[in-house]
Amino acid sequence: MAISYNPITPVLGAEVQGIDLATITVPQFAELYALWRQHHVLLLRGQRLTNDDFERFSAMLGELDPPPNQGAGRKSVPGHPNLYVVSNRKSATGEALGALGDGEAHWHTDMSYLERPPFASMLWSIELPAKGGDTWFASMPAALRSMPADLVRRISRLGIKHDGTYDSGGNVRLGLVANDDPTQSVGTVHPIVIVQPESGEHTLYLGRRRNAYIPGLPLEESERLLNIIWSYATAGSVTLCHHWRLGDVVLWNNLTTMHRRDAFPPDQIRTLHRSQIKGRYTLSAPIQQEAAQRQPEAA
Asked: Any signal peptide, and if so, which residues (predicted)?
């Protein structure tokens, strides 16, 4: 069966047909990868996979990251330490069997507080609630293109400190203490505008809004500017909403998108398995690359 696809929105996402991820070939993967680079988010429905299948396909993208260490500990799939359980299911004794519970997960980019953030992430749906739990994605290249030129010029010379204190559910990460002063919280500074390492495309890179801070600006000015940036980054024209079905696999570029999750009823179960591809790039701004290109070669 030939591979085919349909764009989901004009700026983000494509649904791909004609690939069984359990038996995907190297030529098929090359075609899928090209589509992923173009559309940033790919959806493949009706996948009948085992955890071995899911992990094997994930590893075709690159080296896998183990699950992040949450306050409740690492929540890996039994026998698969590189696969992460996202679930509100609990054991008979009330122990959480997965991470993130049933609440809203706010707009974020996975683990952007790292020096080399994850390159890509993937979710596979196992159990779904009758309502809620939708996942939203936002295109950061499209958001940047929608901005006025003077705003782009200003932010292209600035960075954001990406807070490492809280996860996307608002929980304090293991080993840290709550800190709501963005100027003092732990984190890594990345350029607001980066060059996508493989395509050369310019894109926003924002992470989480909570505790974000633009170094060098007074806190109030940083907050005002970040609110303006986020208004473009989460506008309806650059987002898509994914309504999950059983057997869906969604793969996204962690350097060119943000995502969030809707809450769902706590008496309903939602379980997905997630994989994450280890970061392979140090992020750089367009002006940094231009400066490097202007440097004369050593004699």
From this structure: none
User: Model confidence over 24-43: pLDDT tens digits?
Assistant: 999 999 999 999 999 999 99
Encoded amino acid at 27, one letter = P
State how far the Cα of 171 lies from the Cα of 59, in Å rounded to an integer.
Answer: 29
Residue 226, H or E segment: helix 219-233
Backbone conformation region of residue 135, classed left if phi is above 0, alpha if psi is from -120 to 50, else beta? beta
Say how many Å lie between the first and final Cα of the chain, rounded.
56
Cα 282 versus chain centre, distance: 16
β-strand partners of 252? 41, 121
- Let me know how long the chain is: 299
* pLDDT range class, residue 75, cuts 50, 70, 90: confident
Q: 297: which residues sit within 8 A by CB, 6+ positions away?
A: none
CA distance 146 to 75: 38
Please tell me which residue, 18 or 288, carries the higher pLDDT value: 18
Q: Could you say which of 3.30.360.10, 3.60.130.10, 3.40.630.30, 3.40.50.720 is the CATH number of the domain covering 4-288?
A: 3.60.130.10
The pLDDT score that the predictor gives to residue 299 is: 39
Distance CA 102, CA 264 (A): 6
Q: How many CB atoms lie within 10 A of CB 210?
A: 16
pTM of the model: 0.92
DSSP 29: H
Provide φ and ψ at 82, rounded to 5°.
-95, 0
Name the residue type at position 280: R
Average pLDDT over residues 116-144: 98
